[in-house]
Amino acid sequence: MKFENCRDCREEVVWWAFTADICMTLFKGVLGLMSGSVALVADSLHSGADVVASGVTQLSLKISNKPADERYPFGYGNIQYISSSIVGSLLLIGASFLMYGSVMKLISGSYEAPSIFAALGASVTVIVNELMYRYQICVGNENNSPAIIANAWDNRSDAISSAAVMVGVIASVIGFPIADTIAAIGVSALVGRIGLELIGTSVHGLMDSSVDTELLQTAWQVAMDTPMVHSIYFLRGRHVGEDVQFDIRLRVDPNLRIKDSSRVAEAVRQRIQEEIPHARDIRLFVSPAPAAAGAKSQIG
Question: Membrane-spanning regions, if any (predicted)?
């Protein structure tokens, strides 16, 4: 991690996001109704979904901290992918309703230009949500948390949608009243796209997809650089919430005693955990190297 307080930020970040989302929901909702901006009201509903998403994220982080037990021997880390999929689903459902309402308003022709104060309100929310995105994406990346990263992108989508609202309101005020409703449609499409991406990422994680090739190569190189390691004939890794798990099968010098082979395996484990901070569970299988060298390695 870059900073010593990254773990502390992990416990605090969602509460900050939760508070900011409640404030933005009320701020945009009230200002949207007072100024007559359909797009700003729609954007406030987006922030309302963020409030629910932040609550779900906080709950998932708490559950994922539970240690492994008999029922879940690999731990509770994957709850974060479930949380991420819930956030994505909320965004997609909310976007569908916003899209329907905006299109019906466009068809009926019942739109009028809002007050310029709606643009000022949208500009404030752009700044707040972009700051929350930068804060959360930093914490999420440093802690390798899919739930916090998903919540960060939720704030980024809110910042972009508020920017679209601001443009639409300004265009409406200067003589194109239809622009506010078109902006609401654009916001809906953007939010829906982000929701689909979050759902796809969650499914990818729940299906135990492999870690990046770079991580596998790092683990392989660290293991091969460990003294007395002859070769690696199997290596795979997967994400479990914030953690990375590896299965590694090593061949060591056939002349080593069992006790010494165990020490080599432990050295490999420690070196990988030092090189890859989120490698929590490393399962190592050690066997003696064959008399004839040159066995092929498999990485998957």
Answer: 12-34, 81-103
